[in-house]
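Today's session is about reading a structure prediction critically. Students often jump straight to the picture, but the first step is always the sequence itself: look for stretches that repeat, for charged clusters, for runs of hydrophobic residues. Only then move on to the predicted structure, which in these notes is written as discrete structure tokens rather than atom positions. Here is the chain we will use throughout the hour.
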Amino acid sequence: MNINVTQSFLPNFSVYQRYLKKIWKTHTLTNQGPLSLLLEKKLRKYFGVKHVFLTSNGTIALQIAIRALDLHGEIITTPFTYVATATSIVWEHCKPVFVDIDRETLTIDPKGIENAITKKTCAVMGVHVYGFPCDVTAIEKIAKKNRLKVIYDAAHAFGTLYKNKSVLSYGDISTLSFHATKLFHTGEGGAIITNDDTLAEKISLYRSFGHVGDTYYTFGINGKLSELHAAMGLSILPGISVIMKKRKQISRTYDSFLQNTSLVLPRPLQTTIRNYAYYPVVFPTEQLLLKTINRLHKHRIFPRRYFYPSLNTLSYLNPSSCPISESTASRVVCLPLYPELSKSSVTHIASLMTSGNT
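Below is the predicted structure for this chain, in token form.
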């Protein structure tokens, strides 16, 4: 049996079935049905925020965020992330400007942001990589000084707390991915979070073709989540604390084996309460990483190189120099991590990891 980097969590089928029966009863499949509205309500309470808008995926959430903020010009962002972060900027006719990352947190370096600001800069798009928060305090200070908008791609940050509140509370807008591989998911899906009432009105319109009822107010797109997907989210949400607890236990087991090796474990900012969405390790060299991955593959264990290559090296994404990101991207891998992963499997993976890496 293969051990992959993740395994989508599935709730008790009878729980999901109860929500499906409601859909069959109402014949409401989409267009902000009762289950979507209920999930948004529960997520607002869970995050402690004013507005949550479910979307069909995490990429469209980023695109709508850019539109809602009426951004034009350059958006400063990180090259150490999934490609959707940067391509959403390009798709919305803005230019991504990459700055390097912090060596410990692997998130965007605020010092690099300041140095990259030009007259064309309109916003900063930070990424809470692996669920590790950006330095939101420093970024907010820079943004206020330079009158910039701030979007956080928080695709990995469901359940992450910073300074005792949801990391989604920061910035003008935060976005989430609810893809099947995420800690919390709806199969496919995402969300847009804001505490700004004016932005909330725009996001609501843009997500639904720009109209309410039969009245068209502006341009828009179909970014809605279906009731079938909302049912999955409602079935999973009550157990999210247990899911995170199990992931934390698995991570601690990895820690016990890997902390005194040549492998480096990224560290979040102080006052962070992690969600344990990923377990990344950084090797001293790419050669050693590739050798270890090959060893794991022989045992049918399949980690993943999140995130490789560094986006600033891609020809269609405004190439530039970000040496820390480039080096890290070539040496980092995420180990298997999901609630159903047995302790014996974790121990086996860790033992294979440490062979030749001590």
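Discussion point for the tutorial: Residues 240-354 form a domain with the Aspartate Aminotransferase, domain 1 fold (CATH 3.90.1150.10).
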